[in-house]
Specification:
With 370 residues, the protein is of the alpha/beta class. The chain is built from 12 helices and 16 strands. It is globular and about 65 Å long.
């Protein structure tokens, strides 16, 4: 945790308006994603306070590391509620965000989910939870459209066991099957990287999707496939966004390029987005990911709600359908979407991009949502 986060977590200013921030900052969580999410949240808070706070009261971020553990995250929600948080923000991992949403709903604590995409974020509809990230079904259907457009109809998925990966596999199969596509599932609880290569040859797959954690086993699978001469023509894809972060390029070099993934950014940022991109780059010391923008937009929405509706928890939750805020990636409004039990921004921009093989630190837009 950064010194800024630590001091924010320990701050005891009685006048402060407190927001609980839930982020993965240590393993087995996706640490780099958590750091980018936190950078966006912190930048948002810094700018809100620089502009006078919430009616003169400072906004305070109480940061808790979820470590990708749903039980730890649920306990953090209880703690943050006791400490007087008026709302919760953040979380990247879908299975963790689902636990946070369930506990927030039970306690009557508003939760603005920044980055988790699992459609079934709650078991039943709730007015306490809103979400900025697109639902998985929308993003992964767009990815399936990209696969078919690129000529891939026999798609293998190397999948670990989790609700999130299982949901992604089901969305791909349901989208591709009616259009002649086939999804072949490899159980990564039983296969190693070399066995994946053999299975790809045996099944005549033309694309392999990495539905696995990073850096491992994703990095090992990519290296094995790239070095197997039998698989020279196969496309590797990573719809969950593993190649978005700088660690991917550091670990894989040229092997990490030309691996398409989902990215929630517009083709061009507007004036606000460009300004925030510059500030995030300075804060992170590297190109900010879309996750950092999600963090910033989370605070932008919460600050607008707090200024217009006050700090009463029920009033915050009641405000979701009336939100209309300029974010870094477009105008943010929430609505009810069929099959999704939370207030949803419908819809953030969605792209399929990859790292350019000629210049791996540059991203190419391959496909965009209509």
């Amino acid at each position: 945790m950064s010194s800024e986060s630590s001091s924010a977590a320990k701050q005891t200013d009685a006048s402060a308006v407190r927001i609980g921030a839930l982020v993965p900052l240590s393993r087995p969580g996706w640490v780099e994603a958590g750091q980018h999410l936190l950078a966006g949240l912190e930048l948002g808070v810094c700018e809100v306070n620089g502009a006078g706070g919430i009616d003169g009261r400072p906004l305070e971020l109480m940061v808790r590391d979820t470590t990708a553990d749903p039980h730890r995250a649920a306990a953090a929600v209880d703690e943050l509620a006791r400490l007087g948080a008026v709302a919760l923000a953040g979380e990247y991992h879908s299975v963790v965000a689902r636990a946070v949403a369930a506990r927030a709903d039970a306690l009557g604590l508003p939760f603005l989910c920044s980055s988790a995409v699992l459609d079934a974020l709650t078991e039943q509809p709730t007015h306490w939870v809103a979400r900025l990230a697109p639902a998985q079904s929308r993003g992964w259907r767009i990815y399936a459209d990209f696969l078919l457009g690129a000529g891939h109809s026999r798609i293998a998925v190397a999948a670990q066991s989790s609700v999130y990966w299982a949901s992604g596999t089901r969305i791909l199969r349901d989208t591709l099957a009616p259009r002649g596509g086939t999804v072949i599932e490899f159980d990564m609880g039983a296969l190693g990287a070399a066995a994946v290569c053999d299975a790809l040859v045996d099944n005549r797959a033309t694309a392999l999707l990495l539905l696995v954690g990073t850096p491992e086993p994703a990095v090992s699978i990519v290296k094995a496939v790239r070095r197997d001469p039998r698989l020279a023509g196969i496309m590797i894809g990573a719809p969950a966004g593993q190649p978005e972060f700088a660690e991917w390029a550091r670990l894989l070099g040229d092997d990490g390029a030309a691996i398409p993934f989902l990215r929630y950014l517009p083709e061009r940022l507007g004036a606000l987005g460009a300004r925030v991109e510059t500030a995030l780059r300075e804060r992170l010391g590297e190109v900010p990911s879309f996750v950092a923008f999600e963090g910033y937009d989370t605070i932008t929405v919460l600050a607008d709600v707090l200024r217009s509706h006050g700090v009463d928890r029920p009033r915050i939750a009641e405000s979701w359908p009336g939100v209309s805020v300029e974010g870094t990636r477009g105008q943010i409004t929430f609505s009810r979407t069929p099959g999704i039990g939370v207030w949803q921004w419908a819809w953030p921009p969605i792209q399929v991009v990859d790292r350019d093989p000629v210049q791996p630190d540059r991203f190419r837009i391959l496909h965009a949502a209509p």
